[in-house]
Amino acid sequence: MRDATSISQAAPAVANLEQHVRDLVAEGAHDILPNLPNLGRIPESIAAGQATIDLRESLSLAADRLENDLLIELYRLDVFTAMEALTRDGEAFGFTNVTLPCGNVDGPCVGDLFWDEIHPTTAGHEFLGHAALSLLLGSPLGDLSGDGMINLGDVPAMMLALTDRAGYDTAYPTVDADIAGDIDNSGSFDLGDLRSFAAMFEPSAATALSVPEPSALILTALMLAGLMPRQIS
Ligand SMILES: [Ca+2]
Ligand SMILES: [Ca+2]
User: Fold this and answer.
1) Regions in the chain scoring below 70 on pLDDT
2) What does the pLDDT read at residue 182?
3) What's the confidence (pLDDT) of residue 213?
4) CA of 36 to the centre of ligand 2 (A)
5) pLDDT of res. 15
6) Residue 150 Cα, ligand 1 centroid: separation in angstroms?
7) 24 C-alpha vs ligand 2 centroid, how far in Å?
8) What does the alpha-carbon distance between residue 103 and residue 54 come to, in Å, rounded to a whole number?
9) What HEC string does the chain produce?
10) N or C: which end of the chain has fewer CB within 10 A?
11) What is the distance in A from the centroid of ligand 2 to the CA of 12?
12) Whole-model pTM above 0.90?
């Protein structure tokens, strides 16, 4: 897959993943998280980017088939969108280098997203693990409204959660704001998560992202609410 440059090359990867899920379910598995980041973002390969976008779309359709055929519910961790946000505005998530490998196999790689040409650092894996856990706990990162989508509808919910937590808990009883709101994986939900929330809405790779709203609208809404520092762009 890392060498793929077209949808025709991505298709076998989808078929393989679909069969893997069928095999796992046949063996009794029930909590499955299939997805891939945009492989065009890893240092080793740029050409795989479009193929990974194709894979992501095909994988979503495969997940629909699997749920219908096997009568299961798949947890759909959107690693692609999460990694796109992370590589787009790394500082919003505590990273200072999201494009080049750390390059020091013995080093702590503080601030680096990638360890080498392929693999995320400990901090990179921790970010994805945090996103997976939030999904499994029923409060996906950024979905403060609890409707299963991350979009403009989450802005007022996020503002309410930050300014009137008791009111938020009453209005959105199914969502744990401390989990869904800690988008930057800092260990707490606070104003610092606004920037990482906005980073999820950048329009680059728009064909791959299911989020239709541009980040400017999110930033404007947050600034109007007085919650977003104006120097952040
Ligand atoms: Ca939502
Ligand atoms: Ca946080």
Assistant:
1) 1-10, 33-54, 202-233
2) 96
3) 45
4) 24
5) 82
6) 4
7) 34
8) 30
9) CCCCCCHHHHHHHHHHHHHHHHHHHHCCCCCCCCCCCCHHHCCCCCCHHHHHHHHHHHHHHHHHHHHHHHCCCCCCCCHHHHHHHHHHCHHHHCCCEEEEECCCCCCCCCCEEECCCCCECHHHHHHHHHHHHHHHCCCCCCCCCCCCCCCCCHHHHHHHHHHCHHHHHHHCCCCCHHHHCCCCCCCCCCCCHHHHHHHCCCCCCCCCCCCCCCHHHHHHHHHHCCCCCCCCC
10) C
11) 38
12) no
Using one digit for the tens of pLDDT, what is the confidence trace for 172-226? Answer: 999 999 999 999 999 999 999 998 898 887 654 333 334 444 455 555 555 555 5
Closest CA to 82 of 64, 101, 109, 56: 56
Tokens of 195: 């920037």
Question: How far apart, in whole angstroms, are the C-alpha atoms of residue 12 and residue 22?
Answer: 15
